[in-house]
Structure formats: C-alpha cells, structure tokens
C-alpha cells in the first residue's frame, strides 16, 4: 500500500495530490502537442475544483500561474500565457506573529500587580506609597484566597511584595493594613452590569422553556 506521506510535498494544497500527480504525468509525455492538450485538460479540472475562481479578474491567467507552480516551473508546452518567473510567484511562508507574553514572578497575581508594585517603588516613601502598597496587598489577598487561605496570610504577602519590589521594600506583616475581603473579586461596574444582563436574559429564556409558561409580553399578545 502506498501512502501520500511518502510522496513529494504538495506544492499547492488547494488542488490536492491528484492534480499534482496529473501534472507530473503530463511532464513525462514526450510529444509536445499531446503534452499541451493534457495540460489544458488539467487546467479545466482545476476550474471545476474551484469554480469560485471565475469571479476573480484575470482568473485564467492565475490558473495557469498555479499550474506552472505545481509543475515547479519546468514545463515545455504551448500555453496561452507565458510562464511566470519563479522568484515572483513562489509562495513564501508568512512571518510568524510574535505574541506578547510577559514573564511574571507569580502567575497567581499576573503582570498588573507587578506593574503596580513598580509604580509604588517609583513613588518613594510617603503616605501615598503606603496607601498604594495596602491596596496592592488587598488585591493580592483577594487572588490568594481563591487558591489557599495559607497563601493569603499577611506574612506571605509581605514577603512576596518585598520580592516583587526587588528588595526596595522591607515590609513585615504588621506593616500592612489589608482590607478583609471574603468571597470573589469585585468586578468593575461595566463587567458587573454585563454579567447581570446575561444572567437575566438566561433566566428569562429558561422561564419560556418551562411547560405551561404564558407569554406576558403585551406586544406579542393576540388581539
């Protein structure tokens, strides 16, 4: 049994292995006139595989360009269009997109907490810095409580703040004034309102699905 994986790589995947095999067969034909007729028939098959190409301007020229690419620009035939230059038409792989992946010391807190710690360091000592540090510590507690109560201890958070500040802070547990928070993180107003609307819409949808439910929308009542 012959597997496609053992064949040469596909040059244009949209036309498949069969079209490429037919082109290879046509290249082996010695008679030029017969080879040209076979190639023209292959182009007709390519149109049938992708009829939407007819909607493009100069689609016939593009089809012949694709054919020459499949033939690796090694084809002596009588064609209605000249063979394009390989350098111009050869497909180049797209440039790999680079994603922004910031490295964080604690994935639990994310990069925003580290950014706030940096801002607090830049402020310098003072009441404003102390307020920001306590706000950051409160946020860290909120995240930590979702994982473990032990991770939400003041001693742990103070040590982590010292590490995130790269030694600029020398905090102890008693230095922090963390707001006691229970439950999940509070969402911004926009997100909270959006979630409430989503829950209400889902609730109304479930109510309509219940047997015996009557439509109370006055616009949809029959007169």
Describe the secondary-structure layout.
Blueprint (H helix, E strand, L loop, with lengths): L15 H12 L4 H18 L9 H12 L15 H4 L20 H14 L3 H19 L8 H11 L24 H21 L14
Helix pairs in contact: 1-2, 5-6
Detailed description of the structure:
With 223 residues, the chain is mainly alpha-helical. Among the domains are: 9-89; 110-175, no CATH class. Helices cover 50% and strands 0% of the residues. The chain is built from eight helices and no strands. It has helices at 16-27, 32-49, 59-70, 86-89, 110-123, 127-145, 154-164, 189-209. Helix 1 runs antiparallel to helix 2 and helix 5 (110-123) runs antiparallel to helix 6 (127-145). The chain is elongated and about 95 Å long. The N and C termini lie far apart (72 Å).
Helix content: 40-55%
- Classification by helices and strands: mainly alpha
The radius of gyration over CA amounts to: 34 Å
Global shape: elongated
The amount of beta strand, in percent, is under 5%
Low-confidence stretches: 181-188
Determine the oligomeric state from the structure.
single chain
What's the end-to-end separation, in Å? Answer: 72 Å
Please provide the ordered H/E string of secondary-structure elements.
HHHHHHHH
Total strands: the figure is 0
The residue-averaged pLDDT reads 79
Tally of helical runs: 8
How many strands, which pairing sense, and closed or not: the largest β-sheet?
none
Summarize, please.
This protein is mainly alpha-helical.
Features:
0% strand; 223 residues; mainly alpha
């Amino acid at each position: 049994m012959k597997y496609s994986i053992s064949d040469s790589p596909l040059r244009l995947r949209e036309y498949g292995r069969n079209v490429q095999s037919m082109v290879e067969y046509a290249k082996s034909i010695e008679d030029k006139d017969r080879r040209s007729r076979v190639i023209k028939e292959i182009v007709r098959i390519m149109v049938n595989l992708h009829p939407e190409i007819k909607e493009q301007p100069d689609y016939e020229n593009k089809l012949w360009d694709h054919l020459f690419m499949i033939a690796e620009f090694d084809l002596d035939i009588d064609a209605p269009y000249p063979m394009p230059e390989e350098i111009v038409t050869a497909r180049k792989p797209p440039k790999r997109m680079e994603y922004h992946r910031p490295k964080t010391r604690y994935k639990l807190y994310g990069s925003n907490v580290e950014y706030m710690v940096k801002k607090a360091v830049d402020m310098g000592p003072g009441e404003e810095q102390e307020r920001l540090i306590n706000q950051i510590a409160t946020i860290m507690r909120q995240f930590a409580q979702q994982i473990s109560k032990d991770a939400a201890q003041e001693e742990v958070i103070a040590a982590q703040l010292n590490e995130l500040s790269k030694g600029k802070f020398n905090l102890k547990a008693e230095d922090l004034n963390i707001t006691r928070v229970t439950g999940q993180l509070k969402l911004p107003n926009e997100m909270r309102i959006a979630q409430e609307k989503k829950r209400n819409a889902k609730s109304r949808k479930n109510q309509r699905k219940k047997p015996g439910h009557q439509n109370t929308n006055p616009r949809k009542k029959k007169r």
